[in-house]
Specification:
- The structure holds two protein chains of two kinds.
- Chain A is of the alpha/beta class.
- Helices cover about 40% and strands about 25% of the residues of chain A.
- In chain A, the strands form two sheets. Chain A has a six-stranded mixed beta sheet, with helices on both faces. Chain A has a four-stranded antiparallel beta sheet with strand order 2-1-4-5, with helices on one face.
- The longest helix of chain A is centred in the middle third of the chain and has 14 residues.
- Chain B is mainly α.
- Chain B contains nine helices and no strands.
- In chain B, helix 2 runs antiparallel to helix 8, helix 4 crosses helix 5 and helix 7 packs antiparallel against helix 9.
- In chain B, about 35% of the residues are buried.
- The chains are: A alpha/beta, B mainly alpha.
- Chains A and B meet through helix 2, strand 6 and helix 3 of A and helix 6, helix 7 and helix 9 of B.
Chain lengths: ~240, ~240
């Protein structure tokens, strides 16, 4: 579904991704963990060309992603959930959810609204359809953002640290929604520090440090018997 | 000499009120046409400045810096006399519209650039991640949000432009200030300096004051709404 081939990324002189190769199968739940500055976010951002790789190739659904086809290919295949939600503050929740379906996927307004209400129900916020996002708590905004991603009905949803900007007490409500999603046949790539979540839903966990993938395996393998010294160190610090 | 209190001076102005009305009309006409040009240039160069494409950013920068760092009077003289003496006279009205439009456009471009840059980067990214192309992104998501930041300084720029029509005097324009000047120095009409300038100033004030007040009110309303959003969130 997603394939990164020898992806390198420089920010100026800084080499943030070093020959990253990664393949994500259709319907797979992939969790990327690692210390901050390890290139996890840049890796998922390369998957929808929010960052264009300096060299290397990205394939989505068998097609190579290029600067020329990115708008259309991304529109049809992927959605993203951000650390800082990035809901459109000048639109109601309902407008946030129906904008892309109506303007990009050419759905009739009524159908788009039905879809929006359906996914608002999935994230448990049906009653918030007509409020503005800034009046909602962080956890609620992120659940709306997930509903917005779902409204595009793409096969892939990328999550870039979806709970890192949240209060500890609202993290769980967002994770619960994501666990629910993980039961669907959506390809999910999740950058997170939530090890409990990784353990619960990941088909595969990828550990990154210094712009490289150091270890890949099932959560079982990761949390019981990691091989790499760096991974052991990291997990030792983070797991309570 | 006829001072402020000379009834004859005021009388004369009433008799020649057509001159002032003509000046007002010419000023409004020039300002309006120049505004359309300025908005067009402002949008184009403002978008170029925020495009992230190096060449476009640079071109926009050169335009803005060149215009903002030379006097409008000079630009007007250049456009009028330099062209006139090389045999391509544009005429006074067209010169006025072009010079004012290009000059104000540079300020508009900066206003629009600042407005677009006030929108958080995450908004651009969210739109892009949904598959909006450049135009859709700007139209549905970025410009509606930058509008409130753009409006107050844009109105101020328009007010300045209305006042700047008086620079047309240097090329022999028929704007409000130029006609006022001709009036007070005219053979038959001359002399009523104080009343004439007061009338001229009053007309400018009546045009500009409502606009600046509107800008101030917009700004206040905007701040109030932002405060409200913050308190709502905290509650």
């Amino acid at each position: 579904m997603i394939k990164l081939v020898n992806v390198n990324k420089y920010f100026g002189k800084q080499h943030v991704l070093k020959d990253v190769n990664l393949e994500v199968a259709e319907g797979e739940k992939l969790v990327i963990i690692g210390p901050s500055g390890s290139g996890k976010s840049t890796t998922v951002r390369c998957m929808n060309f929010l960052e264009e790789p300096t060299s290397g190739q990205v394939f989505i659904d068998g097609k190579e992603l290029t600067a020329a086809n990115k708008v259309k290919l991304i529109r049809e295949t992927t959605s993203m959930v951000f650390q800082s939600f990035n809901l459109y503050p000048h639109m109601t929740v309902l407008k946030n959810l129906t904008l892309a379906p109506v303007k990009l996927h050419h759905k009739p307004k009524k159908e788009a609204e039905e879809l929006a209400y359906h996914y608002l129900d999935v994230v448990g916020l049906k009653e918030k359809a007509n409020v503005y996002p800034t009046t909602l708590s962080g956890g609620q905004q992120q659940r709306i953002a997930i509903a917005r991603a779902l409204c595009s009905q793409t096969k892939i949803i990328l999550f870039d640290e979806p709970t890192s900007a949240l209060d500890p007490e609202t993290i769980q409500e967002v994770l619960d929604v994501m666990v629910k999603l993980a039961k669907e046949h959506i390809t999910m790539v999740v950058v997170t520090h939530e090890m409990g979540f990784a353990r619960q839903v990941a088909d595969r966990v990828v550990f990154m440090a210094d712009g490289q993938i150091l270890e890949t395996g099932t959560p079982e393998h990761f949390f019981t018997d990691p091989e790499n010294e760096r991974v052991k160190q990291f997990l030792g610090k983070i797991i309570r | 000499m006829s001072g402020i209190f000379s009834a004859r001076g005021w009388d004369k102005i009433w008799t020649y009120r057509g001159t002032f009305l003509l000046g007002l009309w010419n000023t409004v006409e020039t300002a309006f046409a120049a505004l359309l040009l300025a908005l067009l240039l402002g949008v184009v160069f403002g978008l170029m400045a925020t495009s992230g494409k190096k060449a476009l950013v640079r071109i926009s920068r050169i335009y803005v810096e060149l215009i903002q760092n030379t006097p409008l009077l000079l630009q007007m003289c250049f456009l009028y006399y330099a062209l006139a003496f090389s045999g391509h006279s544009l005429g006074i009205i067209l010169t006025g519209i072009l010079a004012l439009g290009v000059y104000t456009g540079a300020y508009m471009a900066e206003v629009i650039r600042a407005g677009i840059e006030s929108v958080p980067k995450g908004q651009f990214e969210a739109a892009q991640s949904q598959g909006f192309g450049y135009l859709g992104r700007m139209y549905y998501i970025i410009l509606p949000q930058s509008f409130k930041v753009i409006l107050p300084p844009m109105v101020n720029t328009i007010v300045n432009m209305i006042k700047n029509t008086s620079c047309l005097y240097i090329v022999g324009g028929a704007d409000l200030l130029s006609l006022t000047y001709s009036f007070v120095t005219g053979e038959n009409t001359g002399g009523s300096y104080a009343p004439a300038y007061i009338v001229c100033g009053t007309i400018f004030f009546l045009m500009c004051f409502p606009l600046s007040t509107l800008a101030t009110m917009w700004e206040a309303a905007l701040k109030k709404r932002e405060r409200k959003a913050v308190t709502l969130k905290e509650a």
